[in-house]
C-alpha cells in the first residue's frame, strides 16, 4: 500500500487575503488575521482515506514544542487545540481543501507550516504564515465594530500629523506605509527583539507597550534616535522625513537606529507599526503639552524683568505640541470601564519600569482621574492637565528672588487633535481626554487625580536651585499670594500682519479692563524664537509701556520686530522655530498681575501640484510641482522631498537657491503599481524655511 505523501500546497493567497483585509501587504507570504478561517489546498499522491493520518503543524519561534504551546498539531475534525480548529471542506480526487481557524487570542507572529502524513513531513516553499491581530473578529480584544473606523485606523496608509501651536495648528501629511515592502518584516523583527513571551504576544497591551519602547533607540537599539540639539549633520534632520517607510526599511536593512527623530516622527513610525500588526491606531497631537518631571501637576515658567522666558531654570517644560498615539483594545488586565482608546508614546521622555516606554494608558482613566491604573497614567494625566505658573526673577539686594506673576489653570492640554475618520480634516478629541473646563465632572476628576498625586505647595523650584549659589542658598523665596483680579484684567496677543520670513513681524498685545475707574497698567512684552519643546533659541526684542485705561476699555499696544533681528537665527537653525510673545501686565492701583503667552508660526507661500485625476495601472504619468517664492528673501539650499505610496519611491531633489519672485518647477514621472486612491506627498525645505508640505490624490484604475 503506498504511504500517503503531500505533493504540494496552495495557500490560496488572493482569496484568503481579501477576506482577511490583508491583500495590501507587499509580501510573498500569506498574511492572515487571528480568529478568522482561512483555507489551504493540499495535493496528495493518492486519494485521502478515512484511516489516513494527516495533520497540519504550525510552529512559532526558534524551537517549537508542543508542551510550550509553540507547536500546534491540527488534525481535521478533531477537537480544537489551544483554541485552533481545522476542518475538511471538500475532497476532490487527490486534492483536499482544508479550513483553518486560529484562536482569537493566538500569539501574533510568524508561523511555519508543515504537513505531516504517516512518517512524512512536507515543508512547503514560502511556508511561513504571518498571523496578525484582527479588529474584524468579535472575539479578538482589538475588535472594532465600526467599518469606517477600521478603514481609517487599520487600513489607511496615509494621514496627517497636527503640529504648530494652539494659536496656529497645521497639518503635516505623513505616509504611514504599513503595507510597503519589508515593513511587516521589520515589525516582526521588532516583535522578536522585544523578547515578549509567547503568552505576552497574545495581548495587544503588552505588544503596544513593547513597541513604544522599541521605536526609540534609547535602551534597546530600537528604530529611531531622538535628537533635539539642533545639530543633525550626522543624520537626517527630523524635519526632512515625510513618512515612516524609509525609516523602517533602513532600520530593517541595517539593524541600527536611524538618525534622527522628534515626537511627530516617533508617533508616525509607531502608528505604522501598530497598524501593520493589526491594532487600530491613530496619531494624537496635544497643544501646550506639559512635560512635568516631578508629577506635581505644575510647570513653572521663569521670566526675567524684560518678560523674556529663561531656559536654564526648570527641568519641566511646556511643549507647543506633543504627538503620541492611541491604540484601540479591551483591557483584560484592568477593572471594567477602561476599554477603548489607550495612549502610548514612543518619544523618549521619561523611564517607566526602567525603560523609555509609555503606556498603554486608558484615555478614560485620564478623563476620570483614575491615575493609579497602568501604565504611566500619572505621566499622561500631567501632560494634559498641569497648571502653568509664571515667576519673574528679580535681583533684590544682590539676591535673586521670585515673584509670582500669574497662574493658568486651563492652559495645558488644548486642542487635542487627530485626523477625522474618512475625511482630510482635523478632529478635536479633547473631550475624550478631559471633561469641559469648569464642569462638575472636571472638578470631581481632578479631586480624584489629586488623591493619587501629591502636588507640592506653590513655591518656585528650579532644577538647579540647590546647586547655584546666586539663588541665595536656602533663602525662602518670596511668594506673593495670588490676588483675585479686581479689575477684570485680560490680555490678548495677535499678529496684525501675515508672519512671512523676511518681513517685519508685526504683532499686538491687547490689554482689556472691565471694572469702572481710572487704571494705570504697566505692560512688559517680549518676543523670542523658540523650538516646539519650549526651549528659547533667540531673544528678538522687548517693549515696556505704561498705559492708562478708563472704565471698561481696551488698548492695543504694537510689538514690531525688524527682519534683521531674526533672519540670521532663522537661517542657522535646523528646526522649525515658532514666534513666542509673552506679556506681563500689572495694574498699579490694585497690584493685579497677569501673564499671557502665545506662540505663532511663520507663514509660507504654497506649493501647487499638477497631475491628472486618474491614471492606469503600470501606465506612466507626469506630476509637476510649482512653487513661487513670494517672500522677500532668497531661499537657500532648497530640497524637494517627494513620495507617493504605490506611485513613486521616496526621492530628494536638490533645487539650489530660489530668489525672491522666482518660480521653481519640478517634474517627475510616476509609475502606479497599485490600484485605488493614492497620494503624492511633497515637502520643500531650505535654510530659511523648514517645511512647506503639500499633497494631491489620484485614482489608479
UniProtKB/TrEMBL annotation:
Complex formation: Homodimer.
Record-listed Ca(2+) binding positions: 385, 387, 437, 442
Transglutaminase-like domain location: 255-348
Record keywords, A-Z: Acyltransferase, Calcium, Metal-binding, Transferase
Active site positions: 263, 322, 345
Keyword Repeat: no
Reported cofactor(s): Ca(2+)
Name this protein carries in UniProt: Protein-glutamine gamma-glutamyltransferase 4
Catalytic activity: L-glutaminyl-[protein] + L-lysyl-[protein] = [protein]-L-lysyl-N(6)-5-L-glutamyl-[protein] + NH4(+)
EC identifiers of the protein: 2.3.2.13
Molecular-function annotations in GO: metal ion binding; protein-glutamine gamma-glutamyltransferase activity
Cofactor remark from the record: Binds 1 Ca(2+) ion per subunit.
